[in-house]
């Protein structure tokens, strides 16, 4: 039997839809994750994604930059009738919470334009967690579930994520939810103008020049740009290290998406 909470989520249509209309089964506000959680605007889907760890964030950004990825649906629920049957067949205890059936999820259900596979599923797990027997049992249920659907499924660990992406995330996101003390549109216009004047300069060198000319405080402008990048008003190829990032590598987000990102900022600040 499902818990009242999960029954409510079913009625809300969680785990259904696609692109901007998709509703993840688990939202950040529902649980406390074991690592840092992130609400990140997705440019492919035009919606906010709910990511429960730095590893999920790294995986998401990797998918976001892939030209063959068309849709990313995180915290994707599995049909519990099917997982219950698999658990019984494999003689594995099905996940439950206080006696109620716990609907299992895969971290990412991905739609792709790749001619060899139009969809695939990823489960992001830190390598240390793969030493836990119970974790392996649940992964075995999930593996057989997607195998029965004929959809490729794979575990992805931090060892599969390029170090450059991990370093960029470590630099970008620690302060992404902190208070914004500047006018976003004014700063976007200011930095776009500065980037266009010196496209071959690295971001770090340009910000040092800006600090000398406008701020007088070393690191002030770089901190502002970092926040705009973390909030995804500016974007860049996540496979380029922020230390080598040139001004020409930075692109401003479509103005039509600004209101969506700003709405997200307001939501987070009110939590």
Description:
The model has no long low-confidence stretch (mean pLDDT 91). The strands form four sheets. A four-stranded mixed beta sheet has the order 3-6-7-8. It contains nine helices and ten strands. Strand 1 and strand 2 form a beta hairpin. The chain is α+β, with helices and mostly antiparallel strands and 271 residues long. Helices cover 40% and strands 17% of the residues. It has two domains: 157 residues, Trna Endonuclease, Chain: A, domain 1, CATH 3.40.1350; 107 residues, Winged helix-like DNA-binding domain superfamily/Winged helix DNA-binding domain (Arc Repressor Mutant, subunit A), CATH 1.10.10.10.
Per CATH, the class of the largest domain reads: Alpha Beta
Secondary-structure element string: HEEHEHEEEEHEHHHHEEH
Number of strands: 10
How many domains, in number, for the residues? 2
> Could you tell me the mean pLDDT?
91
| Second-tier CATH architecture of the largest domain | 3-Layer(aba) Sandwich
Q: What fraction of the residues are assigned to beta strands by DSSP?
A: 15-25%
Q: Stretches where pLDDT falls below 50 for ≥5 residues? A: none
Helix content, binned percent: 25-40%
Please state the CA-atom Rg, rounded to the nearest Å: 21 Å
N/C terminus separation: 32 Å
């Amino acid at each position: 039997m499902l818990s009242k909470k999960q029954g409510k989520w079913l009625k809300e249509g969680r785990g259904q839809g696609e692109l901007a209309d998709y509703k993840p089964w688990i939202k950040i506000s529902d649980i406390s994750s074991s690592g840092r959680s992130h609400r990140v605007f997705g440019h492919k889907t035009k919606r906010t994604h709910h990511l429960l760890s730095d590893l999920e964030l790294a995986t998401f950004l990797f998918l976001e930059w892939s030209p063959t990825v068309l849709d990313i649906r995180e915290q994707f629920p599995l049909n519990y009738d099917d997982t219950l049957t698999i658990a019984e067949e494999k003689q594995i205890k099905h996940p439950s919470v206080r006696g109620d059936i716990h609907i299992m999820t895969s971290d990412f259900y991905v739609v792709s334009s790749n001619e060899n596979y139009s969809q695939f599923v990823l489960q992001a797990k830190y390598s240390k967690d793969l030493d836990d027997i119970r974790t392996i049992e649940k992964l075995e249920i999930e593996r057989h579930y997607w195998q029965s659907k004929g959809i490729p499924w794979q575990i992805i660990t931090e060892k599969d994520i390029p170090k450059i992406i991990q370093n960029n995330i470590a630099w970008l996101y620690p302060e992404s939810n902190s208070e914004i003390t500047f006018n976003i549109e004014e700063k976007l216009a200011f930095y776009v103008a500065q980037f266009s004047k010196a496209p071959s300069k690295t971001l770090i060198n340009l910000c040092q020049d800006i600090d000398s000319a406008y701020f007088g405080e070393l690191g002030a402008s770089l901190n502002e740009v970092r926040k705009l990048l973390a909030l995804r008003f500016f974007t860049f190829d996540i496979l380029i290290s922020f230390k080598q990032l040139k001004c020409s590598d930075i692109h401003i987000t479509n103005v039509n998406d600004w209101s969506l990102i700003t709405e997200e900022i307001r939501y987070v600040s009110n939590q």
